[in-house]
Amino acid sequence: MSEYCHSCDRRFVHYEALQAHLRNSSSHYYCNDCNRDFPHYRALEQHLQMSAAHRPRPTHHCPFNDWSGFSQNDLNGHLANEHNYCFGCQRAFGAPRSLQQHLLSEKHSPKTVKCPLCSSLFSSLSAVAGHVESGGCPRGKRFNRTAVSNAIRSWERSVGAQNTYTVPLLTYNDTVDDIDVRDCYNAYYNCFFCPLCDKETRTAGQLQAHLDSSAHAPNAYRCPACSGQFVSLSSLLKHLELSACRDKQGRHLHKLVSGMNRLTL
């Protein structure tokens, strides 16, 4: 059966021939995408502008919700404004403050702070303190949280600022130091139990490591701005670096670390 073009009064041997005529003839205003012929150019132009079939489709999609945009810049703006996004880590945060704290973390900070013992470089003062308190410093393996605390207390006394950053010794609980792990062995269960939290370990060394950790450490430090208490110098410094107290006490951060220099004396 032949196909007929009413506008041109022409017959074509098959449908494909008619379609080719509609697409190529200057007498027709044809939409190739929709296979529709329009009576005049203005009708075709209106169709191209208004039809949903011809609207640009978003090419960039948010991985966290159903938002879509037309460029990478659009997507980046959405991620930054709506998801507090760290582009370096490809992580979203629940609040602007959380993102700010993340950007102040070691991962995004250059290593410019020197350990007073081994001269290794770290990205923050809290990282230096943690390095020494953990016994990880190659020139300070004999030091731990207690040694650092004693050094800070000594520094406070020397500058007339006793208990500015440390908790008074009268309230400092030394219960952990009085525990002998050999007395914590349970022959029936063939393991060691922590007398403070009932944590079970297979060896005395594992129990001692647990007791030496911050699990049961007393709060030895305090923030002079908010009176919050902390187990270690590194946790106090991190608080001062990242919290609202940073603006109030930031000028004292380096003074605190200078107290660790007494470890070398």
From TrEMBL:
GO terms for cellular component: nucleus. GO terms for molecular function: zinc ion binding. GO terms for biological process: regulation of gene expression. Keywords: Metal-binding, Mitochondrion, Repeat, Zinc, Zinc-finger. Signal peptide: none annotated. Residues 29-56 form the C2H2-type domain. PANTHER family: FI01116P-RELATED (PTHR24403:SF67), ZINC FINGER PROTEIN (PTHR24403). This is C2H2-type domain-containing protein. It comes from Plasmodiophora brassicae.
